[in-house]
Amino acid sequence: MKRILTFFCFLALPAWANAGYVPGMGEIMGATQMRHAKLWFAGKSGNWALAKYELSEIEEGLDDAVHYHPVFKGTIQVSKMLGKFTSVPLKSLDAAIDAKDSGKFESAFDSLTKGCNSCHRAAGHGFIVITRPAALSYTNQDFTPLGK
Ligand code: HEC
Fold this sequence. Notes:
Layout: H1 2-12, H2 15-18, H3 25-44, H4 48-68, H5 78-98, H6 102-122
The structure holds heme C.
């Protein structure tokens, strides 16, 4: 009986209460910035397992941006722009990580950063300029590869 009552209470809720949480574009981007920094230090530390993980988290975040904000603020064609600016560098990063190749990793990382900034400019947000991180801001995480 209790269960049935709960069910009917749920049905009575307004539509917005069931809509669920939608992450804002700025929130997705903030998380992407954190992962971009971690990806760099994972690669620099030769922690390829962590680099692979951070790369896939970046990809998931960008997929979320397309899913939740295919057109941002009415004019910014996020779904088209993301592929245009990031798909090639993301593929190169994946290949560099699989090959455990530091040189290729660095250049693919810089291409991704360029892609971030080109998209920001194209989206009228050219004032958001991403760079190679100078220092690791996460002092509570060990980037040493396992077993070293
Ligand atoms: C669709 C093209 C696009 C790509 C590709 C893109 N961004 Fe963004 N980014 C945006 C837009 C649009 C905003 C503004 C969001 C807002 O106004 O809420 C933004 C905002 C940001 C912000 C500001 C967030 C804040 O609250 O301070 C950061 C940081 C950021 N992006 C990082 C990145 C990084 C790192 C990458 C690359 C890995 C990247 N972005 C790739 C479109 C893009």
